[in-house]
Amino acid sequence: MRTITAKHQNELKLRDYQLEAVDAIRRYPKPRPILVAATGAGKTVMSSQFAVERLERGPVLFLAHRDELLDQTLEKFSVVFDALAPKGCEVKVGRIQGPDDDVEADFAVASVQTISQSERLERWMDAHETTPTVITDECHHATARTYMRIYHALGFLGAVPDGHVHLGLTATPYRTDKADLRKVYDGVAYAIGIHDLIDMGFLVPPKSVKLEIVEGLEDKNDGDWSDAEVEGAVDTPSVNKQIVAAWQAQASDRLTIAFCASVEHAYHLAEEFEQAGVPVAVVHGALPKEARRQTLDAFSDGNIRVLCNYGVLTEGFDRPEVSCIIMARPTLSHSLYVQCVGRGLRIAPHIFKQDCLVLDVVGVTDVHRLMTVDRLLAGEDKDESGEKRERAGGERGPRVAKRLTASAFRWMRVRERVWLARDFRGNFVRVEQTQVGWYVAYGRFSTDDPSDKPEMHRVYFGPDSEMAWGAAATYAQIGLSKSAVGAEEEWMDLPPTEKQVAALERRGLQAPQTRWEAAELLTKPTPRQEELLKRIFKANNIPYALLPETMDEANALLNAVLGQRLERQEFLVRYAMVLPHRWEIFRDVVQRHEESKAAAEAIGVV
């Protein structure tokens, strides 16, 4: 358990529909609302905002059924609390899972499997007089006995105590076993679907490629295929070889998740990929937690290109860089299909992701078209049993003006893992993937007016790339001229101007094909500037992380230090005066990383 304090280090802004959803939950007239939000909508961010508000009433218990969901929730709640709670406010946060037993926390994330145990549940109830707020992630599981045991003990079945709220979160509120969620919840307070998010640019569109290579599976009037039926039809050497061949032909440059029919199928498919020389790994529910974590980290780092999985990654797994889904698991469940495909729909502007390729190797697309997802989530279509459902009583979002996302802007990659959007007036939004998380800042740096002082404001520093790029999009839309950075601006794809060509020739660079590419080359420091600055930095034992990232920055720094005999500390003082925004970024990152901190202490930074 640890105590976090709201310091307002991040200027986090929720998306318009997220604000609308939180307001709808507040105003919902009954105590057990559901928030239905498709993958990528930010369910955890919205529920964290609601949790921050509810803390004044007492402890908040957040329930999840996977370890990864617990970790993600704590990370995102900490960011939201820091940004949106009253400054100076403190909260004790903790985990209840396995050996972790932080029952005295004000905000606790709890594994359902752990806290449903009588002893753990009693310890939580002994530590708190009442639990006015419960939030259940992936609440379509809420009718299971373990969940119901918790709800019964805390008073959320039957007549709910006045002022108490049980919020359910899900992207797919219907179950294949026909269990009725109305036993646990009163209705939907707010719903936003996949197509809404695709239209708004918060998800990339799926691009389906159907591979008709499986025989023997016939449509069913009720329920789903059994594991034996699925495995017998899909897990054959011929089908697995054709899956690998199709991936090599159409998706070899994409980070990929394969959803398999069984654990054995996952290993058999992985063997085919391995024989083809593709870096591949397998994850499944029985894999030890640490081994699974290491595998997922290697996948995120790009050391593994294909991840064959069974029963693990359908929920709570967020890797925006995934841009291909191999749907090798036949299913008649709309919910399951949408969950699987949703793993590849998150935006990732830093890799220029435009869509998600779905290799549908079992012909699922004809039965479950993605276009039916919105109707399902809004309660306007048939449920998994084929029966017509009554329309959800909640509000349908979004009803607000379309907000541009990070994909709507052109981002310059100014150095490794650093992206910059900068307009003609010197306003900028900067995104950096550091060793300790994503760092997003906005500000202004211009050499046109000497009285125009540089400025920099941090808006996000944390582990979640989706939150980082969401913040970057918000501030790019607010603070930058769209004509300078808008991805669809016509001038960007025109041939370079004569002035651009001449400037590139002076640098000894060949002109590219478009004005945007030329502008990108001309934004970065010149080769001569880099040579001079690296020589100075090396002589003074100054980390290259402080090197200027634009020609204007490099020019300003060189004007301040070139031709002068400066000691290391004097140089750093000049640097902080000339490039205060870069200095603040460096200090922030240093404070999060022990190795960088040690290096910084050696030069007197901290």
Automatic annotation (TrEMBL):
Stretches assigned to coiled coil: none
SUPFAM superfamilies named among the record's database cross-references: P-loop containing nucleoside triphosphate hydrolases
GO cellular component annotations of the record: cytosol
GO molecular function per UniProt: ATP binding; DNA binding; hydrolase activity
InterPro entries found in the cross-reference section: Helicase/UvrB_N, Helicase_ATP-bd, Helicase_C-like, Helicase_Restrict-Modif_Enz, P-loop_NTPase
Domain Helicase C-terminal span(s) in chain numbering: 238-391
Domain Helicase ATP-binding span(s) in chain numbering: 24-191
Classification via Pfam families: Helicase_C, ResIII
Protein name, entry field: Type III restriction protein res subunit
